[in-house]
Amino acid sequence: MIKKVFKNPKQYNIEMDPKDITFMKSGFNNLVEENEVIENTGSVVMVFMQNAMQSADIYVRHAKRKEITPEDIKRGLMLEVFFMKNRPNMLEKCEEMKQTIKDIIRDEQENGETYYLDEEEDEEGNEEFSESKCQCAMCNCFNTIYSRWENFTPQLPMEHILVKAINEI
After folding, report:
1. What is the pTM of this model?
2. Is residue 68 part of a domain?
């Protein structure tokens, strides 16, 4: 490899055994690390979504509606981007979710069963989105989320990913 990059590696005082690839090792067990990254990312995303849906549920109840609409979910996701960093129990919730995911995977492997959500057959909700007239802090945040969102500049890599995904909804 070095010979392809440098026409004459000896001119740079580089001597390399072509069979020695230790320079390519990171020092970490990549398989274990990769699984842990997947588990951690999955748990963060699941907790993020759970919190967003709980906020959307509160908003819908305050709006005196019965169904959560796609717009409620989008606004909940947008709001959670701002709330996520400040939640005092986020780490604990992520660890709990990580364990739940591991338990589900273990159960599926042991029992040969796959978990599915019980879904009604293509029953689309008929209720349309309407803003809540409630003046509580949560409803105010939901009602004004677009102006806050337009002025938001993501700082963290996860925020960039979330903003891009939410903007595509």
Report:
1. 0.72
2. yes
